[in-house]
Amino acid sequence: MSDVASREYDLTQAEPRPTDAPYYASVADYLALLKPRVMSLVIFTALVGIVRAPGDVHPVIAFTALLCIAIGAGASGALNMWWDADIDALMSRTQRRPIPAGRITPGEALAFGMTLAVGSVLVLGLLVNELAAALLAFTIFFYAVVYTMWLKRWTPQNIVIGGAAGAFPPMVGWAAASGGIGLESVLLFLIIFFWTPPHFWALALYKSGDYARAGVPMLPVVAGPSETRRQILLYTLVLVPLAMSPFLLGMAGIVYGIVSAITGGLMLLLAVQVYRRREGAAAEAAAKRLFAFSILYLFLLFAVLLIEAVTPSWFGL
């Protein structure tokens, strides 16, 4: 039996659709396939890449690029849910997604994701530029194939390597606006890349039972909580000075420098707490605080970069 067929069989056995009447998926079900929370982060970081890029870009071109990047991100989410439907059915935080819940079939999700993927890349290439389209195509491929189909079930370094997919949007936005790739876009890529492991490993620490039940080799499952805490601290030690580098290299203003220093200090403090608190409710609470704050941390960094770009006179730039 093929992987796809066995996955559909498992889902059918776990939670079959009603047989007495057909089920029609709602618009909300298809929106859920797009992973809207992830998509919102992609849109936001891509927007920062667009506005930080040198030169002027027409608002229509910028909007078209942002829309294509958003749709491409949604396509990646749909393809991820199609392939991962079997393990999603086993995890408490994902078992209510449209496919394992029986509201959308794997085939429907695959067709939906592929249509969005091809359409977003073609439109971006035809209406914006080929470099941005190529980067978007690579991003979708990396997330759907390299991360989802290969790394996620093969290595505990899945989040480290696979995190590149989530780090590409500001680079795609920069390419869409400028037609090239600049040093600042590379720095934005690296900030998200090194932010991803401590962010997701903090989640994995208190959701390790889910991953173990689904057979996903996340770091806490394979190497244990102690090694995961150590890795979180090491990556945070790299992340904090890296996040300050746009200011240190003169690419961002003083406000960004202050915000990155203060929030970076808090991020490091929370990572130290995760490293030190290893037992019981205190350990879980520390991991939850780091996970929640890491989202705010990345948002504040990119929000200040965005504000500095659109209102430079306010910051004396």
Order of helices and strands: HHHHHHHHHHHHHHH
- The strand count comes to 0
- Please give the CATH architecture of the largest domain: Orthogonal Bundle
CATH class of the largest domain: Mainly Alpha
Give helix % range: over 70%
Function: Converts heme B (protoheme IX) to heme O by substitution of the vinyl group on carbon 2 of heme B porphyrin ring with a hydroxyethyl farnesyl side group.
Membrane topology: Multi-pass membrane protein
Protein name: Protoheme IX farnesyltransferase
Pathway: Porphyrin-containing compound metabolism; heme O biosynthesis; heme O from protoheme: step 1/1
Question: What is the element layout, followed by pairings?
Answer:
Blueprint: H1 3-14, H2 27-33, H3 36-52, H4 59-83, H5 85-88, H6 106-127, H7 130-150, H8 158-167, H9 169-178, H10 183-206, H11 208-214, H12 219-222, H13 225-248, H14 254-276, H15 280-310
Helix pairs in contact: 3-4, 3-9, 3-15, 4-6, 4-7, 4-9, 6-7, 7-8, 7-9, 8-10, 9-10, 10-13, 10-15, 13-14, 14-15
Can you characterise this structure?
- By secondary structure, this protein is mostly helical.
- Helix content is 76%, strand content 0%.
- It folds into two domains: 156 residues, UbiA prenyltransferase (Tetracycline Repressor, domain 2); 136 residues, Four Helix Bundle (Hemerythrin (Met), subunit A) (Up-down Bundle).
- The protein is built from 15 helices and no strands.
- Helix 4 packs antiparallel against helix 9 and helix 6 packs antiparallel against helix 7.
- The longest helix has 31 residues.
- The termini are far apart.
- The N terminus is likely disordered.
- InterPro entries: Protohaem_IX_farnesylTrfase (IPR006369), UbiA_prenyltransferase (IPR000537), UbiA_prenylTrfase_CS (IPR030470), UbiA_sf (IPR044878).
- Keywords: Cell membrane, Heme biosynthesis, Membrane, Transferase, Transmembrane, Transmembrane helix.
- It is found in: Cell membrane.
